[in-house]
Write a structure and sequence with these properties.
This protein has 593 residues and is α+β, with helices and mostly antiparallel strands. Helix content is 36%, strand content 23%. The strands form 4 sheets. An 8-stranded antiparallel sheet has the order 20-19-16-17-18-21-23-22, sandwiched between helices. It has a 7-stranded mixed sheet with strand order 1-2-3-4-5-7-6. A 4-stranded parallel sheet has the order 10-9-8-11, with no helix packed on it. Helix 19 packs antiparallel against helix 20. The two termini are 46 Å apart.
């Protein structure tokens, strides 16, 4: 295993030799290398002054060298060279990340990198941004000039440090267990989608110590995720359940595992709170703490907040609770005759399950309100007015927004941020987070209302992650539609954005796409190859690819959940398009069906 340590003055001559061998690796001639030699030489007194570190392998051999030079807030990556025999083994990546970490500790906020043109692809893949400013004077021959990059080192976001106390955590993928406690007719009894979604346990905090998963996951998946996000030492405990969704009880049934997970002094982070999780974590279950997971209860909460005033940019859609399908049919028929669109909701449901958007045209095409209601699950329904957007053809911008935050164990509400969701016909498909994603006109209203909801949740006794979902109406106002008292797809994107900003420099946009169709079912080894190829392809664009949900690839109709990250919307869109095209194209290798 390669580790980084401070260089020693006595190593200066040997380190200079390593630098020159690394430079020669690119095929430069002797004259050019001789011209570079004075600039690339490391002297004994440089080691401390230039903050030189080395990478050392398990045999004690030095295989790389890097330096962090200058005075905060601006510094330079003066050296980053790898022994030719170690190129491609992750040594450069390890050294670069160490430089960014030390830069943060020193208070550096602008790191300048003058790169050999042959290394430009490496720095682009590591997240540095090419700038138009010319590189500092350096060796130049035969038209070969240095390429200037910059990075913006930042510490882990304040909210992320507050979420897990700034350290690592144990992640429990209890998605099925959380859903099952509501006994909602719209949720799959076998919880197959929930067990796929449990793979998101890898991302419940910016840096996990252990993952606890209900179903087996591919080893290649966890290895790639760790490599992409710079994690080491992550323990994986998977395959703990056959059918029952009770993951916390499955852990408790293994006393040695339960003691290992709960006795390390690390935060135990679930997808959502359950009574069983309370038993595992030694945390009292608070009666009614999840009451605002109910859509009607959340609607009532929104109404009380708005009654106090101060939220001019928020409008609440009307909502009625009906006790059966026929009562709902009568109300739906009346609204259809009046030309009004309607949203039918169950009390609970995830990702849009249990939510149906019905225009008058759709009701008539289905054969009327009663015909529509026959297809829906039995039980109480909520009838809600549909919030219309901008007129057709207008550039209305984002339609579905969300606010994420959490309440810590002391009862303090923390803001995480806003995101733009992709929603199709009432069903969630993914989300994008990052700087500038939420339009400026919506940001203040969204944050103020989300903060108010967080405060109310804290006072009600809730502790944990939450979000508030909004729809934008035709007048540019935000209509809150529900709260989710658990982690969510957008929350996963926030966690990855926080990690990438700390690992690669500030400014990442992160998109989570719940379902990317695969052109064919692949054996596990071929799935690993595809994901590795997607990681390389995105890196060439200056983006990051992280497979988020691999187990869907083994379904009869195979798919992947993915995360992509970049520093611009254009690169982010290009990375997603690449991933979708390459994933769908895997079926071509098998020829015509």
């Amino acid at each position: 295993m390669v580790k980084v340590r401070a260089a020693r003055p006595a190593e200066a001559e040997d380190l200079t030799g390593l630098v020159m061998r690394s430079k020669a690796h690119w095929g430069y001639d002797a004259a050019f290398l001789a011209a570079c030699a004075p600039e690339l030489r490391i002297r004994a007194d440089d080691v401390t002054a230039r903050r030189v570190v080395v990478a050392e392998n398990g045999r004690g051999e030095v295989v790389g060298v890097a330096s962090l030079e200058g005075t905060p807030p601006r510094a330079e990556l003066g050296l980053l060279f790898v022994e030719p025999s170690a190129v491609g083994q992750g040594v450069g990546r390890l050294l670069y990340r160490d430089v960014l970490r030390r830069a943060v500790e020193l208070g550096v906020r602008r790191l300048v990198i003058d790169s050999d043109p042959h290394a430009a692809g490496f720095y682009r893949a590591m997240g540095a941004v090419a700038v138009a400013e010319p590189a500092a004077p350096a060796a130049e021959a035969g038209g070969t000039a240095l390429v200037r990059f910059e990075a913006t080192p930042v510490p882990l976001a304040d909210w992320a440090r507050a979420w897990t106390g700034g350290g690592r955590a144990v992640h429990l993928g209890n998605v099925g267990e959380f859903n099952a406690q509501f006994a909602d007719a719209t949720l799959d009894r076998e919880q197959r989608p929930a067990h796929h979604y449990a793979c998101l346990a890898a991302f419940y905090s910016p840096y996990p110590a252990a993952l606890v998963l209900p179903r087996p996951v591919p080893r290649g998946w966890t290895e790639l995720v760790c490599r992409q996000l710079g994690w080491t030492g992550v323990e994986v405990y998977d395959g703990l359940l056959d059918a029952d969704p009770g993951l916390a009880d499955a852990v408790r049934a293994r006393p040695a595992l339960a003691a290992l997970l709960t006795g390390a002094g690390l935060p135990l982070v679930p997808w959502g709170r359950t009574r069983a999780f309370g038993r595992l974590a030694g945390r009292p279950w608070r009666a009614g703490e999840l009451r605002y997971e109910s859509k009607s209860a959340a609607h009532g909460l929104f109404g009380r907040i708005l009654a106090d005033g101060g939220h001019a940019g928020i409008v609440l859609p009307r909502q009625w609770r009906v006790d059966g399908r026929w009562a709902a049919a009568r109300m739906l028929a009346a609204r259809t005759r009046a030309g009004e669109s309607t949203v039918l909701k169950s009390e609970h449901g995830v990702g849009g399950s249990g939510t149906t958007v019905l225009t008058p045209e759709r009701v008539r095409a289905a054969g009327g309100a009663r015909a529509v209601l026959r297809r829906l699950p039995r039980g109480p329904l909520l009838v809600e007015e549909y919030v219309g957007g901008a007129a057709s053809g207008d550039d209305e911008g984002p339609r579905d927004l969300t606010y994420d935050g959490f309440v810590d164990e002391a009862g303090h509400a923390h803001e995480v941020g806003g995101a733009v969701m992709e929603v199709a016909d009432g069903c969630y498909r993914g989300a994008t987070v990052g700087p500038g994603v939420v339009p400026a006109w919506a940001e203040k209203s969204l944050t103020a209302f989300g903060t108010a909801v967080g405060q109310e949740l804290a006072e009600s006794g809730y502790r944990g992650w939450f979000d508030v979902d909004f729809v934008v109406d035709g007048a540019g106002r935000l209509a809150p539609t529900e709260t989710n008292l658990r982690l969510t797809g957008p929350s996963i994107a926030f966690m990855v954005a926080a990690r990438l900003d700390a690992l690669r420099g500030a400014g990442h946009l992160v998109r989570i796409a719940d379902r990317v169709e695969l052109g064919a079912r692949l054996p596990e080894a071929q799935l690993d190859e595809l994901c590795a190829a997607l990681a390389r392809g995105c890196a060439e664009l200056g983006a990051v690819f992280v497979p988020a949900i691999p187990t869907g690839a083994f379904e009869p109709a195979p798919w992947l959940g993915v995360l992509v990250a970049a520093r611009s919307g254009e690169v982010l869109d290009a990375a997603e398009a690449l991933v979708r095209a390459e994933a769908l194209a895997v079926g071509a290798m098998f020829g015509p069906s």
